[in-house]
Amino acid sequence: MAITRGFTGRRKDRDPRLPPGQYDSGRDWPVLNAEPTPRLHTDRWTFTIEGLVAEPATWTWDQIQALPRSRYEGAIHCVTTWSRFDTTFDGVSVDTLLESVELDPDAAYVMATSHTGYTTNLPLEDVTDGKAWVVWDADGAPLTPEHGGPARLLVPHLYFWKSAKWVSGLRIMAEDEQGFWERNGYHDRGDPWLEQRYQGD
Amino acid sequence: MPSWQTATVVDVRRETPSAKTLRLRLPTVSAHVAGQYYVLRLTADDGYTASRDYSVASVPGSDTIDLTVELLPGGEVSGFLHDVVEVGDELEVRGPIGGWFAWDGSAPALGVAGGSGVVPLMSMLRLSRERTTAPFRLLVSARRPADLYYADELTGPEVSVAYTRQTPPGYGRAAGRLVAEDLAGLLTPDQTVYVCGTPPFCDHATDLLQSAGVDASRIRAERFGPS
């Protein structure tokens, strides 16, 4: 890597919780999505787990709200280089949702889907064991439409495009398939600590 | 995904009081499609790096690319690019990136830009002028005349400019944010619409477009954040 003439940067302020190449956005929470923000109504909202399962399972808004709650408090990291610390999300753990289905022994990947048609692929092990949630509150208030409300996926240990806004379900797969941004050049896994931003990183 | 390459700054041009265009010479011809962007990386002598994404404003097919950089308050990278970089410097870039917000010229398109969001749409406008393409129209929103990027090129029947705070003397449209009438005459049924600007601008523009009957599936938005 070539040194840039005259560049010193701002390391002295650097928070050790920041992955490489990220900066602290403070309390700003930038919005990035590739499609118009949809207005979804909770009376028609559903979340479905399908694919390599013995029987698909679907929850209505009221049904998913009745499940045991789970909270995440910590950082989120966007591939466009901002990170936001001390964000609180409330919802339900994906582990709790997966308890309702019987996974096929070949299950190894999931495709998260959105009510807009957005998709993103993840290894099954990245959404189990307390690593992923379906959330509807952020910092104590209902998730707004621009941040994915009424509910989004939350996979905070990966870049935030994996945390599908307006999530509609998980499709369980044996083989990895690429989702929307992954087909458009982004990495299949997206670990911010390994700077897996783009295909080939 | 392309690897890092070293580009040389061959020109620096001021667009507005807060925006500069850097023209970079690449080792090879840029393979970008209009609308795509490059990642630009700065490296300090101890290995510390900072990188940001910048849209290409110039047309494909050249070994130079124009990146227009808005100076952001306290911006670690934009401040360096504005205050320190000069012709002859070498900068690392990687790209092109982005297969979604991209127009190859084969089908009709409309661009709707707010402020610095005009940069990737400028690549599309220039492409439509320099090559044989399907029709491209552009609607640009800027605060004041002094804030309009590429002002000397934003003329002609295919371009409309709306000012939100202050207009030139005698301008035919009052200052104000985009309204439904601004879209009148610009929409055709077969267009893809590319919307680029801040998140509030994009939300406002996509709401207007959908109210005007444009299906969400034909709208592609790129939201510029404070990065």
Automatic annotation (TrEMBL), chain A:
Lineage: superkingdom: Bacteria
Entry-linked InterPro entries: OxRdtase_Mopterin-bd_dom, OxRdtase_Mopterin-bd_sf
Coiled coil: none
Annotated region described as Disordered, given as residue ranges: 1-35
Domain Oxidoreductase molybdopterin-binding: 36-181
Signal peptide: none
Full protein name: Oxidoreductase molybdopterin binding domain-containing protein
Origin species: Pseudonocardia oroxyli
From TrEMBL, chain B:
Cited PROSITE patterns: FAD_FR (PS51384)
Residue ranges of domain FAD-binding FR-type in the record: 2-103
Molecular function GO labels: 2 iron, 2 sulfur cluster binding; oxidoreductase activity
Cofactor(s) of this protein: FAD
Sorted UniProt keywords: 2Fe-2S, Iron, Iron-sulfur, Metal-binding
Highest taxon above the source species: Bacteria
Gene3D superfamilies referenced in this protein's UniProt entry, alphabetically: Nucleotide-binding domain of ferredoxin-NADP reductase (FNR) module, Translation factors
Keyword Iron included in the entry's annotation: yes
Keyword Membrane on entry: no
Name of this protein: Ferredoxin-NADP reductase
Organism from which the protein derives: Pseudonocardia oroxyli
